[in-house]
Structure formats: structure tokens, C-alpha cells
């Protein structure tokens, strides 16, 4: 089966892992990328998305998206996790192409209408562009095939005790996405944190795929150093964003529960994704358990097949 996927992204090191996976996987047609703030500013995210498209040698359209959340004051970018320019200590990477003139939310709507019931939206950053697309044209809810989100997680957080970064960066947008009448699959921290990469994994990828694996290995060193501060100096990293893509190609690696969801938009628990008692909310799929070794093996083998 060929999946038409549109990735909404704030690249970002694990975003780069996700984009390379999608571009290389034979069952994914990466039809476009849209960009958003989060790991870096939207300006840098847009350049970085073009960098990734050009690295894989594919003509993937990139549309620049929202620069700020729907309501709240923007949080600082996560440069302490991903580096000032998003790819660790790498300086700004040169690009040949440019973003579309079309804003991200309009591009999302157009792609859904041009490919009815075929597009899978895969946002791996804050959900601002997805909420704006829904506001711009509510009819897309009945025409999108699926929305597979890296974000949230029941009873867990990474920027606070309660909140995961993507949801925390625009909780109002996330709540609008969960309130809509469409199909959503959530790959949250409870599963993505179970899939772990080590320095030896990135070294192997560089040997197997010098261009793409080499890029990931160089970018990942900063990421590994950050995670070492959280894991008693053990250099490893969670495979957050790629896991959402692997949930598209290999859903059998995950167990799923269905829940109506909402997001807390104020107070000390802002950004928390939780069960909703609202009877009007549609139930969505929440990934609960993961075959972490199978997911990691799928990622590694796909990148190994690069160049």
C-alpha cells in the first residue's frame, strides 16, 4: 500500500530522522512538508525542511507555516535540545530551492482536496498549522484519510510533569484538533520514549548510508549530549518523530486504545493531554504499547537503504 503523507514539521534532529525515513520508505509518497515553530523558529524550520528535501534528492514542496501559537505567548525555541540552527552544531545549511508562496494551512487544504481520502497528515511539531487549516476549510475533516500526531501522551510529559513539548507549545491548537470530527492517531511519549538510539546506531547509519546517515550522525551528537544530561550521562536519544511515521507503515508494532481527548489550556497543567468527558468529542486512537525493537529495526533498515 502506498501512503500519501504530508509532514508538518519544525526540524529538528528527530524531525530529520522522520523526514529521511518517509522519503526513503517504499510505501510512503511524501507529497509535501509544512513548517512551524517549536524546535526552531518557523523561518529556520522552513530552510531546514528544504535542506532535508534536497539532501534526499526529491522534489518535495515546502510551505511555510505559522510563526506563533493561536492564543498564547510563544515559548522559547528548543535550541538547547536541537541547537541554534536545528541540526546540532551544524551551521546554516545552504539551499537551492525556496518555499512555496502558498501558506501552509492553504497548502494543506489544497492537497487534501486534490487527493480526497488519500492524504495522511503527520504533524510532528505544534499543531498550529493543522488547526488553522481546519479553521480555513472545515470540510477537510471529511476528506483527510488520517492524522497521525507525534505529541502528547497520557499521564506523562517532557517539558513539565504534565505536558509534552508539541502540545505545550500550542495547547489551544491541539485542543481544536482533538475536538474535530476526523480520525486522529496519537503517538505520544508513552510509546516514543520506548524507542532508543545510541551513538553506535548513528555510526552504523553513517557507514551504511554516508550522505544521509552521515548527516544524522553529525546532527545527533548535540542531541545525544542533551539527553546525557537527563540520563546520568548516558548518551542515547528517544526516537520521537520517526515513530509516528512508522506507525503509518507498520501499525502492527503498536497496541491501540480509543479515547476522547482534550487539552488543558491554562494553569499549571497547561498542555496536558487528557481523557475528555465531553460526549460530543469523537474518540481517537492512542498508541499504548510498542514493539520498540521492531520499530527501531524498521527505521535503521530504511535509512541503511539510502545513500
Helix and strand topology:
Layout: E1 3-9, H1 13-24, E2 28-35, H2 42-55, E3 62-63, H3 79-82, H4 104-114, E4 119-123, H5 128-136, E5 146-150, H6 165-169, H7 171-179, E6 184-187, H8 189-192, E7 196-197, H9 199-208, H10 212-228, E8 237-238, H11 240-249, E9 254-263, E10 273-275, E11 283-290, H12 292-304
Helix pairs in contact: 1-10, 1-11, 4-5, 5-7, 9-10
Model description:
The protein is an alpha/beta fold and 307 residues long. The chain has one domain: Ribonucleoside hydrolase-like (Inosine-uridine Nucleoside N-ribohydrolase, Chain A). The protein has 12 helices and 11 strands. The longest helix is centred in the last third of the chain and has 17 residues, at 212-228. The chain starts with a strand and ends with a helix.
Summed up:
With 307 residues, this protein is α/β, with parallel strands linked by helices.
Brief descriptors of the model:
alpha/beta, two-stranded antiparallel ribbon, Inosine-uridine Nucleoside N-ribohydrolase, Chain A, 307 residues, 9-stranded mixed β-sheet
The percent range for strand residues is 15-25%
Oligomeric state as shown:
single chain
The CATH fourth-level homologous superfamily: Ribonucleoside hydrolase-like
- Which series of helices and strands comes N to C? EHEHEHHEHEHHEHEHHEHEEEH
Q: In one word, what is the shape?
A: globular
The CA-CA distance between the termini, in Å, is 24 Å
> What CATH architecture do you see?
Alpha-Beta Complex
- Helical element count? 12
Round the mean pLDDT to the nearest integer and report it. 96
Amino acid at each position: 500500500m502506498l501512503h500519501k503523507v504530508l509532514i508538518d514539521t519544525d526540524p529538528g534532529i528527530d524531525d530529520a530522522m522522520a523526514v529521511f525515513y518517509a522519503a526513503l520508505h517504499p510505501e510512503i509518497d511524501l507529497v509535501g512538508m509544512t513548517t512551524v515553530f517549536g524546535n526552531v523558529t518557523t523561518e529556520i524550520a522552513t530552510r531546514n525542511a528544504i535542506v532535508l528535501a534536497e539532501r534526499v534528492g526529491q522534489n518535495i514542496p515546502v510551505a511555510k507555516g505559522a510563526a506563533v501559537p493561536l492564543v498564547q505567548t510563544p515559548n522559547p525555541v528548543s535550541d538547547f535540545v536541537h541547537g541554534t540552527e536545528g541540526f546540532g552544531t551544524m551551521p546554516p545549511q545552504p539551499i537551492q530551492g525556496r518555499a512555496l508562496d502558498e501558506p501552509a494551512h492553504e497548502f494543506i487544504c489544497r492537497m487534501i482536496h486534490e487527493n480526497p481520502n488519500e492524504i495522511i497528515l503527520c504533524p510532528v511539531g505544534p499543531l498550529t498549522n493543522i488547526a488553522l487549516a481546519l479553521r480555513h476549510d472545515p470540510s477537510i475533516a471529511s476528506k483527510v484519510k488520517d492524522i497521525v500526531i507525534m505529541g502528547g501522551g497520557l499521564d506523562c510529559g517532557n517539558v513539565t510533569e504534565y505536558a509534552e513539548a508539541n502540545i505545550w507549545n500550542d495547547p489551544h491548537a491541539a485542543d481544536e484538533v482533538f475536538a474535530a470530527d476526523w480520525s486522529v492517531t496519537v503517538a505520544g511519549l508513552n510509546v516514543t520514549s520506548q524507542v532508543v538510539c545510541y551513538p553506535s546506531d548513528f555510526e552504523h547509519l553513517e557507514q551504511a548510508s554516508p550522505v544521509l546517515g552521515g548527516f544524522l550522525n553529525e546532527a545527533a551528537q548535540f542531541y545525544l549530549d542533551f539527553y546525557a544530561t537527563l540520563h546520568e550521562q548516558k548518551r542515547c536519544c528517544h526516537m520521537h518523530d520517526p515513530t509516528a511515521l512508522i506507525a503509518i507503515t507498520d501499525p502492527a508494532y503498536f497496541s491501540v486504545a480509543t479515547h476522547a481527548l482534550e487539552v488543558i489550556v491554562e494553569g499549571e497543567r497547561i498542555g496536558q493531554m487528557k481523557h475528555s468527558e465531553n460526549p460530543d468529542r469523537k474518540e481517537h486512537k492512542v498508541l499504548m504499547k510498542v514493539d520498540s525493537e521492531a520499530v527501531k529495526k524498521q527505521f535503521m533498515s530504511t535509512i541503511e537503504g539510502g545513500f
